[in-house]
């Protein structure tokens, strides 16, 4: 029986401190973050990364000289991917399939393409909204 006592809070899919998702797909966090893994998972081209991160295509790199702006944007995307992965119990294949499938709720565009086309923030809000509506 799942009772909530006065000093306990009921669990919900999204809360104040859930903006940093568990690293289910092992992108790494902070200094151990692997930006290349985000690019590989969603099969982004250099041109996509350039557009997504607002950096020159010549600046797209994954070594210690990765542009801060690019690293930060890919960390945000990795966090969102991990939020979706949580719904699929950490299953990477299902998570990638969800990102690549056209979604009628997103205007028949895939979540991956929304990111590629510069609509990441709209996608992130859509995901958070969908997760909060699953609260029972």
Q: What is the count of helical runs?
A: 6
- The Cα radius of gyration reads 16 Å
**Count of DSSP E strands?**
0
**Helical fraction:** 40-55%
Q: How far apart are the termini? A: 16 Å
Main sheet makeup: none
Shape descriptor reads: globular
Return residue spans where pLDDT drops below 50 for at least 5 consecutive residues: 1-12
The multimeric state of the shown protein is single chain
The secondary-structure class comes to: mainly alpha
Strand content: under 5%
Q: Quickly count the domains.
A: 1
Q: What is the residue-mean pLDDT, rounded to a whole number?
A: 88
State the order of secondary-structure elements, H for helix, E for strand: HHHHHH
Architecture blueprint of SSEs:
Elements: H1 35-41, H2 46-53, H3 68-87, H4 92-100, H5 111-116, H6 120-132
How would you describe this structure in keywords?
single chain, 136 residues, mainly alpha, 46% helix, disordered N terminus
Write a brief caption for the model:
This protein has 136 residues and is an all-alpha fold.
Can you put this structure into words, describing what you see?
The protein has 136 residues and is mainly alpha-helical. It has one domain (30-132). 46% of the residues lie in helices and 0% in strands. The chain contains 6 helices and no strands. The chain has helices at 35-41, 46-53, 68-87, 92-100, 111-116, 120-132. The longest helix is centred in the middle third of the chain and has 20 residues, at 68-87. Residues 1-12 have low confidence and may be disordered.
């Amino acid at each position: 029986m799942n009772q909530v006592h006065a000093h306990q809070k009921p669990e919900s899919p999204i809360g104040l401190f859930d903006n940093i998702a568990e690293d289910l797909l092992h992108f790494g966090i902070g200094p151990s973050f692997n930006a290349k893994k985000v690019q590989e998972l969603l099969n982004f081209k250099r041109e996509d990364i350039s557009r997504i991160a607002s950096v020159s295509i010549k600046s797209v790199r994954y070594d210690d000289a990765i542009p801060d702006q690019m690293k930060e944007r890919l960390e945000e995307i990795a966090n969102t991917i991990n939020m979706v992965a949580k719904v699929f119990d950490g299953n990477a294949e299902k998570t990638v399939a969800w990102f690549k499938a056209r979604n009628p709720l997103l205007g028949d565009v895939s979540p991956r393409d929304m990111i590629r086309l510069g609509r990441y923030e709209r996608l992130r809000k859509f995901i958070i909204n969908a997760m909060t509506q699953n609260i029972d």
